[in-house]
Q: What sequence folds into this?
């Protein structure tokens, strides 16, 4: 895939297999993750290649796992699925090989029925034999490979299909990520149908992350009233992750526009910046904008509903501030932080393709992806996902 210029993410549950994958493809992105619990937001990927792995799942896990595949595929996305073929019909056909490894085999009709129930449309199928064995004498296996298309919508209930697709929408413009040789979906640390976490496109420092709404919302003031707990849980996880990686506290900030072009926002899609550092950003905001107002997500929602744009700053748990504003210079927070951090260009549009930006972005991924995988396996993030 890399040789064909396709950006992809490899997933396996076995650490030794991941070590081998990284040895063979040093530039690849590989995650330790369970295919039954894919920690990605809906519509994150255009295609899934599931080769000789799905049949290791027990029969009762087949349909829920296929529905999980459909969830993270874009509408019209393609699934390529290869399993051992069972030509007999009737009964649950499973067995262990010479090494004691469980395999669930499927007839053509069984697999097609599962795919249909999960929301896929068959495009074509192929069958072919192989003769090999990792353990014990070689034996002939028959393989069934199916290409299927996701027929489901990539929108959540209540979303309209005519919403704009901005540079933070997963099905939106990819040009910003192409400039640094990456892809939005391949850069996601974790996510679900409400939020996802990824490095900032032009990090002000290594570890600079974004918490992004999966739906196209203008700001977190527009976040649903029933969902504040997931945002707080995500902030806690990010704070713990960055503390573990960099040994620093985390500040959170947002340009919360209620109308286009306000609050210094240059992308009107809810995204909360997360930066591992300890700087007196509030002092600058108080000096330039007047004293901030203690706030929480409910207060931000009231401001948004009153068409009031805001700047948001959080310097610690419970230490949250809002600044009612209208039109501000673009990237106001980034300008102020660049002054405090020193010797850094604040304008992400100018710096997104620079070697320094690319290095910070890739180092952030390299440092945080393994830690995020540990959190996901421990179910630390979004309990009961």
A:
């Amino acid at each position: 895939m890399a040789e064909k210029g396709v950006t992809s993410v490899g997933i396996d549950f076995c650490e030794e297999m991941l070590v081998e994958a990284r040895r063979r493809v040093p530039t690849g992105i590989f995650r330790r993750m369970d295919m039954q619990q894919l920690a990605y937001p809906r519509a994150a990927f255009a295609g899934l290649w599931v080769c000789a792995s799905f049949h290791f799942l027990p029969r009762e896990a087949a349909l829920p796992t296929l529905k999980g595949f459909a969830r993270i595929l874009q509408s019209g996305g393609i699934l390529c699925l290869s399993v051992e073929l069972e030509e007999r019909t009737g009964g649950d056909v499973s067995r262990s090989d010479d090494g004691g490894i469980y395999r669930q085999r499927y007839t053509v009709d069984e697999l097609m029925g599962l795919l249909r129930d999960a929301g896929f449309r068959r495009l074509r199928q192929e069958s072919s034999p192989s003769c090999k064995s990792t353990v014990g004498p070689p034996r002939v296996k028959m393989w069934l490979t199916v290409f299927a298309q996701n027929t489901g919508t990539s929108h959540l209930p209540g979303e309209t299909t005519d919403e704009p697709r901005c540079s933070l929408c997963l099905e939106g413009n990819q040009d910003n990520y192409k400039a640094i040789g990456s892809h939005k979906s391949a850069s996601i640390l974790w996510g679900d149908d409400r939020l996802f976490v990824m490095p900032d496109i032009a990090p002000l420092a290594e570890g600079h992350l974004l918490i992004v709404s999966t739906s196209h919302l203008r700001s977190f003031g527009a976040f649903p009233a029933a969902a504040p707990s997931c945002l707080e849980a995500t902030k806690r996880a990010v704070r713990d992750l960055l503390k573990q990686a960099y040994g620093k506290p985390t500040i959170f900030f947002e340009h919360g526009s209620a109308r286009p072009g306000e609050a210094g926002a240059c992308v009107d899609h809810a995204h909360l910046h997360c930066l591992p550092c300890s700087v007196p950003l509030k002092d600058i905001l108080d000096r330039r904008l007047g004293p901030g107002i203690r706030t929480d997500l409910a207060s931000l929602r009231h401001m948004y509903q009153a068409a009031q744009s805001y700047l948001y700053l959080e310097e610690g748990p419970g230490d949250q501030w809002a600044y009612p504003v209208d039109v501000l210079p673009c990237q106001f927070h980034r300008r102020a932080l660049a002054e405090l951090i020193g010797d850094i260009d604040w304008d992400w549009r100018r710096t997104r393709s620079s070697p320094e930006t690319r290095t910070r972005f890739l180092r952030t991924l390299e440092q945080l992806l393994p830690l995020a995988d540990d959190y996901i396996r421990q179910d630390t993030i979004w309990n009961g996902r």
Remarks:
- The mean pLDDT is 87.
